[in-house]
Amino acid sequence: MQLAVSLTDKWQIHRDLQLATKALQASENRFRSLVETTSDWVWEMDNAGCFTYCSPICKPLYGYEPEELLGACFYKILLPPEGRDEMQKVFQTCLQKGKACPATERQCMRKNGSIIYVESSGVPILDNKGKVMGYRGIDRDISTRKQHEEEVRFLEEQQRQSQKLGALGTLAGGIAHDMNNILTPILGFSELAMVEANPKSNLFNQLQNIHDCSNKAADLIRQILAFTRKQPIQMITLSLNEVVDNFYKMLRRLIREDIELILHLQPDLWLIAADRSQMEQVLVNLIVNARDAMEMRGQTITISTEQAIISAKKVYDISHQHMASGEYVVIEVKDEGVGMEQQTIEKAFDPFYTTKEAGKGTGLGLSTVFGIIGQHNGYIQLDSSPGMGTTFRLFLPRAHAEGVALEESQQTEIAAKGDETILLVEDNPDVRTMLTATLEQLGYKVITTNNGKQGLTTFTEHQQDIALVISDVIMPVMGGVDMSHKIRAIQPKQPILFITGYAFESGIQDLVNASHCQHIQKPFAIHAIAEAIRSLLE
Predict the structure, then answer these.
(1) How far apart are alpha carbons 451 and 475 in whole angstroms?
(2) Residues 81-103: pLDDT tens digits?
(3) What is the reported pLDDT for 9?
(4) Which of 366, 365, 361 has the alpha carbon at shortest distance from 349?
(5) β-pairing, 236-238 with 405-406?
(6) Do the beta carbons of residue 49 and residue 91 sit within 8 Å?
(7) 148-180 pLDDT, tens per residue?
(8) Residue 100 pLDDT
(9) Of residues 254 and 148, which shows the higher confidence score?
(10) Distance CA 189, CA 73 (A)
(11) In terms of Cα–Cα distance, which of 524, 528, 413 is closest to 184?
(12) Which of 62, 162, 185, 306 could be 430's S-S partner, Cβ–Cβ 3.0 to 4.6 Å?
């Protein structure tokens, strides 16, 4: 009986051992299958950081066969040289404290030297006494995720930059509006005083200096409005070759004598629809920018024009914007100056950003170019590198003759006069006073009000006498647009002249496009408003 019981126990133990062995083998097979088929790399290492096990995924992940990594120290073979010392310290700290290595994103180096991003985590392997024998963990390739995050980050940065520029543009536009209201009476009163002063006197020269300085300030304001894309432009059909040719002497005076200015203009260049003065402003800003980049004698600046057809393939401008396919006239300004680093290129068109010394640049030159080209539905490409010069390529759409006015001759400087009655509606007292004096000197009778509501009441009372309404656009109580609509309801053909220091506001365009209505931008010369008045009255 004892022998039977002993043999039975022995057989049972043997049977349990066989079952346990099969279960262990099945578990190991499941573990191995899981480890070897997962996209994550499973590894084990000893307390020296050398690999003792590597799953086969290390081949597609790092380019190494498992056998190549066994016995190798992980931070010496998989990490870039600049990150090895720091990672060794982190590993020693975890080893001494016996704590797990939390999921960490880091750059790793593949066998071919390329860099990938991985997320790595590990837990300690302990012996019977609780001492750390090594670590077991996984590495996950997150390169695609990081690339996506970089793209999202880039788009977010572009959006923030766009919002920042939009806010700055709104601020700049508001400041420009206020500055134009200040400059308008300065220019107007100085002109009125110059009419009465002796042209040979010191007083006349001083008034002329005031007038010239005010015009320079007005030009700066126009640059700000061009940057904000809120400067109204007068589109005409013109030849870019003609603009460059006619402006060559002016450009020549902007640069030093030791700099050569070369023209390469393509014959029979397509016409463009553009504002001539703004195209000249673009040329001035680019040439001045090129001049300031020149440090050596005998260097050259080259202005070239050509025709280009952009197809459906992806072509991008400096804002990484996909250029629309079509026919373009291209003007290129190339210099042999110091060039720009990538960091400077990325900020080159930001307003008020400049690399020039204090007092030598406003930081508005290239941002003005960017605003003007944007207003003309064009694109800019910038190519530059340190020591290799800089090339700006401006793409302007080819003009279609329909709906674009031909370039007109310069207006006369003679201020036209009259004797009609004019209703002046202007909320700024300085501008109102200056305009009243100007109109009276031109022979007109003037009735003044300081907002649209008063202007409407006055027009209703004196509509038989009022030949013309001159109105600001933005005013308290009632603006110029609302007042004009109500006046037109009373007198459909009433001539109206809008004056504003900003740009075309909502609702103005319809009125300007209608008959007996014009628009003039502050600040303006006496002859300009005189000609506009006579044009409407006659």
Answers:
(1) 6
(2) 888 888 888 888 888 888 888 78
(3) 85
(4) 366
(5) parallel
(6) yes
(7) 888 888 778 777 766 776 676 677 667 777 788
(8) 84
(9) 148
(10) 83
(11) 524
(12) 185
Residue 139 structure tokens:
């590495």
Q: By C-alpha distance, which of 281, 297, 293 is closest to 354?
A: 293
Tell me whether residue 420 is exposed, middle or buried, using C-beta atoms within 10 angstroms of its C-beta: 0 to 12, 13 to 18, 19 or more: middle
Which ranges of 132-239 does DSSP label H, i.e. alpha helix? 143-196, 202-227
**Which has the minimum average pLDDT: 113-117, 119-123, 369-373?**
369-373
> Are 235 and 203 spatial neighbours (Cβ–Cβ below 8 Å)?
no
Q: How far is CA 394 from CA 5, 217, 288, 502, in A?
A: 101, 27, 16, 27
Is the pLDDT at 372 greater than 90, yes or no?
A: no
CB 408 within 8 A of CB 432: no
Rounded CA separation 56/38 (Å): 10
What backbone phi and psi angles, to 5 degrees, belong to 495?
A: -65, 135
Instruction: Count Cβ atoms below 10 Å from residue 74 Cβ, excluding itself.
Output: 21
Euclidean distance between CA atoms 456 and 99, whole angstroms? 82
Q: Are β-strands 115-126 and 101-109 bridged in parallel, bridged antiparallel, or unpaired? A: antiparallel
For residue 430, what is the enclosing H or E element? helix 429-441
Q: What is the pLDDT of residues 373-420, one digit of tens each?
A: 888 889 888 888 888 889 999 999 998 754 444 444 333 344 678 889
Nearest partner of 328 among 305, 350, 361, judged by Cα? 305
- Residue 277 tokens read as 């003065």
State the amino acid at position 441 in one-letter form: Q
Once rounded to an integer, what is the mean pLDDT over residues 40-54? 90
